[in-house]
Write a structure and sequence with these properties.
The chain is of the alpha/beta class. It has 10 helices and 15 strands. It folds into 2 domains: about 150 residues, Quinone Oxidoreductase, Chain A, domain 1 (Alpha-Beta Complex); about 140 residues, NAD(P)-binding Rossmann-like Domain (Rossmann fold, 3-Layer(aba) Sandwich).
Amino acid sequence: MFTGILIDKDDSGYRAVLQEINDDQLPEGDVTVRVAYSTLNFKDGLAITGSSPVVRKFPMVPGIDLAGTVEVSGHPDYKVGDQVLLNGWGVGEEHWGGLAQKARLNGDWLIPLPGEFTAAQAMAIGTAGYTAMLSILALEHNGVTPEQGEVLVTGANGGVGGFAIALLSKLGYRVVASTGRTSEHDYLKQLGASEIIDRATLSEPGKPLAKERWAAVIDSVGSHTLANACASTKANGTVAACGLAQGMDFPASVAPFILRGVTLAGINSVTQPKAKRIVAWNRLAKDLDFALLPLISHEIGLSEAIDAAPRLLAGQLRGRVVVDVNR
């Protein structure tokens, strides 16, 4: 038996309950992991509250991130005792995830936990930091350098935004953070933002083309914010789109792409191949200031995760929420 959050849906309705689960209820997989830490992401908040149809199968254990120790392995790359981590692959949506003390998984989804990180630090970074690094890799792939000018980070108070600011700043970029929370300006400056702008300047309907300002953009918001970011990106700049907090729509024109040669790079963190994941995590080990992790993240117990989910969705929790599944 182990403890986990189990989401179910039947004639009685939709519910998420912290309960004891039998090992024989675990789904199929060739690696069983004794989970040490997981996280509470926006997608997990949606799953736990039922606010959006994130969960595809019932019952479901949420949690799109996990880090822990291999307990049983039938996979050639992993042996008992190995430290591993996982992000994405539909875990917490179509396959039981990390908000439980055990997980049984496809070993191809795992990567070794880099030696530079503890399990708790890896989860403080989690999908958010990993997505931010994938976005930076996309900018670099397109030749963006600090000398070309300012980089805009939207959704700056979210997990992806916070890590994007910290990483870009350490890499020498001048970062402009967009947020609607004026109370968080000091926090964003501590992460490395040089300037902070009100998200309202980007979140309303805008023009197909605006004055050129950004050498690049990392956008986790979508909708009008993404459209306006593209419209104000400099010629031959790159916009990395990695989230949809404002909406899934894209009310824009092709003008920035055709008239200015702007590149819109989509960032898919869910099904990246193992080699790309390892590159991203190795770069995080090299380029992230670990001293910022306590500022970007805070820890809760598994018993607190269900109550924290609606507060996360309401924007009442800053940065990353790390979940110790053993308390």
